[in-house]
Structure formats: C-alpha cells, structure tokens
Design goal:
Strand order of the largest sheet: 1-10-9-6-2-3-5
Strand content: 15-25%
Number of strands: 10
Number of helices: 7
Length: 245
C-alpha cells in the first residue's frame, strides 16, 4: 500500500526525497547482472528543490553518477532540444550539467521524432533493457495526473502519445509567453511504466494539490484519478507538505 508522508514544509519534502535518492546512489553496488541504478526523473518546479540537494551532495563528494542511468518521464511534442521550455533543456540546465553523469546514459523522449509511436515503443524497451526503473520520482497535477497521464488514461498504459487537457495547458502556460505557445500533445511514460518501478516517490506542495492527494490516497482507485493507481503499489510514497495534506 502507498504511504502518505506529511511533512512541515517544502524544504522537508525536498530533504526527505533527496535523501532516499542520495542513499540509493551511495549504497548501490554494480554487478554484471545489474550494472546501473536506474532513476526515473520528472521536470517542473516541484523537483528543482530535490535536484539542488542532490547536486549539493555531488559537489560535496558524497556521491558520483558513474553507475546511474536516467529516464525522464515526458517531453512536449513539437519542441526541439534547445527550446527553453523543452524538458531536454530543463533537465540539462537544472540538473545534468551540474553532475558527473555520462550523457550517453541520459534518456529523454524525443518530441521531434518523425515516428512518435516507434519513439514510444523504443523508449519502453530501453527501460526494460536496464531492468526497469529502480526509483521513480514525480509530481502530481491538480487533476491528479502523474507524468502527462491525464484523467481517463488506462492503468495498463505504457509510453505513449498523450493529448493534454485544458487544465494542464492552463497550468503550464505560466512557463510560456502566451498560452497559444503551449503544446497540446506530449510523449509520456505510461501509468503501468510508473507502477512497474520498484519505488515511486510522488511530491506535492501547497493547498492547490490537496484535493488531488486526497483523491489519490482516499478514494477508490479510478482512471479518473491517475495517481490512484499507486494505492496498491508495495513501495510508493506521497511526500507532501502540510498544506498538500
């Protein structure tokens, strides 16, 4: 069963989540069968605080990313890697350029791929080739979406093309000069992809996320509330500040 972790403030949320990831990197011992720790990573404003604490641990020589592979959750369709609002740009600017990870072990969906279905299928197979995701970090939308899995997405979904709801477009418009610039489609890992991770950490900050957290953890699991799939996950955590709880 998923666990709800209620903490005093956002910094406590960042510390709680980052310490789990930092300890996993510290304690990971590569083997021929399992050469890499596999991290699933999100974008957005919420995880930046976690990334800053992980970067700090790296700069203090507490950890190295020599044996880490990453897979990002999603990417807009139609934005190239250099677009300021692409998730490629976000991840390099906020995380990857500050640590020692080999960029050949960084995986982000290509929203400019000519064959989007093939891009999704290849991404899913690449995750499987590394033995699946060990720790999946993520946020939650006001409509309880995780990654870009909007309400109504099947619990059996794998990496796929996703139409974005107006709710999500409105929420993300703050990052663009005009709402007309916000992409209406994205590539995203699926709900089953997330559920298959060995550990899932979902972060929530502020009272705007309280309704989503309540529905995800208290109401019967339903595709109307994508995050509710995690209710039966054996090692999932909703890590929230007091306002989100």
């Amino acid at each position: 069963m998923a666990k709800l972790i209620s903490l005093e403030n956002e910094n406590n949320v960042y510390e709680y989540a980052s310490n789990i990831i930092i300890d996993a990197i510290k304690n990971f011992t590569p083997t021929p069968q399992k050469p890499y720790l596999v991290l699933g990573l999100p974008t957005g404003s919420t995880p930046i605080g976690v990334y800053k604490k992980i970067i700090e641990a790296y700069k203090n020589n507490e950890i190295s990313f020599d044996n880490v592979v990453t897979f990002n959750m999603d990417e807009y369709i139609g934005l190239d890697d250099n677009h300021l609002q692409s998730y490629h740009y976000f991840m390099y600017d906020n995380f990857f350029k500050h640590i020692d990870i080999d960029l050949s072990r960084v995986h982000i969906l290509n929203g400019m791929a000519q064959n989007l279905e093939k891009e999704c299928n290849d991404y899913e197979e690449k995750i499987k080739s590394f033995g699946g995701i060990d720790i999946q970090l993520g946020g939650i939308g006001q409509n309880a979406h995780i990654a870009f899995n909007e309400p109504g997405t099947s619990f059996d979904s794998l990496t796929h093309v996703q139409d974005l709801t107006q709710n999500t477009i409105d929420a993300n418009s703050r990052f663009f000069d005009d709402i007309s610039e916000v992409p209406t489609k994205a590539l995203t890992i699926g709900l089953k992809t997330i559920y298959n991770a060995k550990m899932v950490l979902i972060l929530a900050l502020g009272n705007k996320k309280a309704d989503a957290i309540h529905k995800a953890t208290n109401n019967p699991a339903s595709t109307d509330c994508p995050a509710s799939i995690l209710q039966t996950h054996p090692n999932a955590y909703f890590i929230c500040d007091k306002e989100a709880c």
